[in-house]
Amino acid sequence: MKQLVIVTQTVGGDEKAWELIEVNLQSPGNRGWHRYQILRVLRDGDIAEWQRDLGESKNFRGINQLRIPSLWEHTVDELFDLADELRGQPKIDVKDFLSLEKYKPA
Questions:
Q1: Alpha carbon distance 43, 61 (integer Å)
Q2: Is residue 51 part of a domain?
C-alpha cells in the first residue's frame, strides 16, 4: 500500500531535520536517471519531504548514494555540509578501474 507523502517547497538552514538522502532516481517524464537530494523536515506535526534535483546521475559516477540520519539533532545546513563532505569520497568503480567495459573476449 502506498503512503501519502507530505511535500514542502521551502526549508530553512537553521531548521532541524529528520534525515537527508541522496539517491539516483528516474526523473519525471522518463528523461533519464538523475541524482536527487531528499530532505525530511517537520511540518505541522508530520514529516514532510523537500527535494532538489542535482542533475544527471552520470555526473555522480563512482560516488555512493547517501543516507544521513539526523533524528532532529542536526540542522539543514549541517546536513548539507555533511553530504558535501561525504560526496567528496568516491567509491572505487572496479569495472572502470580495470577497464572491463572495454574488454572484448577473443
A1: 34
A2: yes
Q: Classify residue 104: in a domain, yes or no.
A: no
3-state secondary structure of 69: strand
**pLDDT at residue 103 tops 60:** no
> pLDDT tens across 16-58, in order?
999 999 999 999 888 899 999 999 999 999 999 999 999 999 9
Helix, strand or coil, per DSSP, at residue 5: coil
CA 29 to chain centre: 19
- Number of structural domains found in the chain: 1
Average pLDDT of the residues of the chain = 87
Q: Is 50 helix (H, G, I), strand (E, B) or coil?
A: strand
CA 30 – CA 26 distance, rounded (Å): 6
* Residue 105, domain member (yes or no): no
The residue count for the chain: 106
Report if residue 78 sits inside a domain.
yes
Entry pTM: 0.76
User: Which residue segment(s) compose the domain that 62 sits in?
Assistant: 6-97
Residue whose C-alpha cell reads 544527471 in the numeric block: 56
